[in-house]
Structures are given as C-alpha cells and as structure tokens.
Amino acid sequence: MAQNRKHWKEVLAQLEARIEEHWRKIREEEARLQPNWGVIAHWEREIRAWEKRRERILRRLGRRS
In total, how many domains does the chain have? Predict the structure, then answer.
C-alpha cells in the first residue's frame, strides 16, 4: 500500500508542476502585444482537466485539498 501511495504522491507532484508551468505560459502569452487566445484557452482546458484529476487522486488517497 505504501508503494501505491508513493506513486500517487509522485503523480500529484508532476501534476502540480505541469499546472504551474501552464500558468506561467499563460502569463507570458498574455503579456505579448498580440496574445494567441486559442492557445491560452487550450492551456486553461488542460489545467482544468489536471485539477479534476488531482481531486480524484486526493479522494483516492482519502484526503481533500
């Protein structure tokens, strides 16, 4: 069981890193003179999907954020 928890904690850490990276990309894109709103919307959808996955993993581990 501990190995399983370790795996999910690693997955959570990877998700957090990806979410933060995409927020950084969004901030950089919005700072441009002509932001590409299509790519920003894409990144926001990915962030929402990863946040939902994060919540499911936390429930699986028996904790909520």
Answer: 1
- Tell the residue number behind the tokens 């993993």, with chain if given: 57
Check: CB of residue 57 under 8 Å from CB of residue 11: yes
Tokens of 29: 């894109």
Q: Which residue has the higher pLDDT, 62 or 55?
A: 55
Angle 3-11-4 from CA coordinates, rounded to 5°: 15
Report pTM.
0.84
CB 19 within 8 A of CB 50: yes
- What is the domain extent for residue 7? 2-60
* Distance between CA atoms of residues 49 and 35, nearest Å: 23
